[in-house]
Amino acid sequence: MTQKKSKLSLYLLICLLITSTSNSLVMMETTAKPEHKKELLQDLQSATGLWLDVRKNFVRENTVPFNLIPFSLLNTKRWSLTARFLLLGALRSNSVYRVRTFRDRKLGSAGSGIDLNINDLKRVTYRSVPREAFGAGLIFLHELAHSHRGLVDPDLLEGRSNPEVKGPTVEYINKIQRELGLPERLHYFPKKIAGRNDVLCIYFGTVERVELDPKLF
């Protein structure tokens, strides 16, 4: 029993040490719908085990009393230590990451800010792939890995020579996928289905894939 208590104490200490005291992460544009904010918030909480909320369009880490009880202890799903460190790194930085949801192209992109077109996720078809594996939270973390960690995607020339190329960002997010118990993305560039030009696929297994409109990538 003493050994179990010691392990629990160590676990609680680690959770507290990797909890940020900062309270600002990303500003949602006023065009973001309430359901979009809720979806992103829930995905990020599940992925990181952090208490988060939205106040005045900012996604923030919750403070007292919620962080006295690590969210990860109450979260029945697995959470990712890698995702937690990525999010906390952004929380502790001086950057504000904007989420703009009004664009009609691309699910996500990174530059001076982060564009996250949550609305167009409704146009993605999941074929035996959990929504969380290619949902708002992980797409956001993918773009955050670009903006905050400087990770890059493969270029088009590399993709043409090696269709199975993943690139540093996908490899990094795949680590998060593994920690969450989710299937990993097998390549970066979407693939066409033979005889069809209206859909692109990203595979997470032999037949497990997400299908999306070519305009979204």
Account of the 3D structure:
The protein has 217 residues and is an alpha+beta fold. Helices cover 37% and strands 16% of the residues. The protein is built from 7 helices and 10 strands. The chain has a 6-stranded mixed β-sheet with strand order 2-3-1-4-6-5, covered by helices on one side. A hairpin with a 5-residue loop joins strand 9 (200-203) and strand 10. Helix 2 packs across helix 5 (136-149), helix 4 packs across helix 5 and helix 5 (136-149) packs across helix 7 (167-180). The radius of gyration is 18 Å and the shape is globular. The protein starts with a helix and ends in a 5-residue tail after the last strand. 31% of the residues are buried. Residues 11-18 have low confidence and may be disordered.
> Which residues form runs of ≥5 with pLDDT under 50?
11-18
Counting DSSP H or I runs of 4 or more residues, the number of helices is: 7
Estimated structural class: alpha+beta
Average the pLDDT over all residues and give the rounded result: 80
Shape: globular
Quick one: biggest sheet?
Answer: 6 strands, mixed
Helix content: 25-40%
Distance between the termini: 53 Å
Please give the radius of gyration in angstroms: 18 Å
β-strand number: 10
What's the order of the H and E elements?
HEHEEHHEEEEHHHEEE
Strand order of the largest sheet: 2-3-1-4-6-5
Q: Determine the strand fraction and express it as a percent band.
A: 15-25%
